[in-house]
Write a structure and sequence with these properties.
The chain is an alpha/beta fold. The chain has 5 helices and 6 strands. The longest helix is centred in the first third of the chain and has 13 residues. It is globular, with a radius of gyration of 17 Å.
């Protein structure tokens, strides 16, 4: 197996779901001709400026993140805005992790994702290649939804 390529994605101004699906494809290796389901052929991805990714509509107020301590009554719930203030990296991590396989292969792929709050990251030695997404991932929607 060849060495993994490293990519760096600047999340500033990108929409959370669209960016996450593109990153999940890179982690899985779907962009490679030698892609095999269940085989680790994907690349490593570094996400910077995680606090500057955006969500549309009312998701900033309405979207909830839940975690459980494992103890009775241990469910904690917080909104997107609260988690954005506290740990913005976790929002991006949870979005991408949900798009990976829910098994040991997905857990292994998740290890190849590195998410950072600011524009600095400690992976300069891997010489990550800057990655730009095109299409609806980086541009605003051009269609206006009509109400009936």
């Amino acid at each position: 197996m060849a060495a993994k390529k490293w990519y760096v994605v600047d999340a500033e101004g990108l929409r959370l779901g669209r960016m996450s699906s593109e990153i999940a494809k890179l982690l899985l290796g779907k962009h490679k001709p030698e892609f095999t389901p269940g085989a680790d052929v994907g690349d490593c991805v570094v996400v910077i400026n995680a606090e500057k990714c955006i969500v549309t509509g009312n998701k900033a107020k309405d979207k909830l993140y839940r975690r459980h301590s494992g103890r009775p009554g241990g469910m904690k719930t917080e909104s997107y805005e609260e988690l954005q203030r506290r740990i913005p990296e976790r929002i991006v991590e949870k979005a991408i992790k949900g798009m990976l396989p829910h098994n040991s292969h997905g857990r292994e792929l998740f290890r190849h994702l590195k998410v950072y709050k600011g524009s600095e990251h400690p992976h300069q030695a891997q010489a990550p290649e800057a990655l730009q997404f095109g299409g609806l991932t980086s541009t605003p929607d051009s269609q206006v939804r009509l109400r009936r």
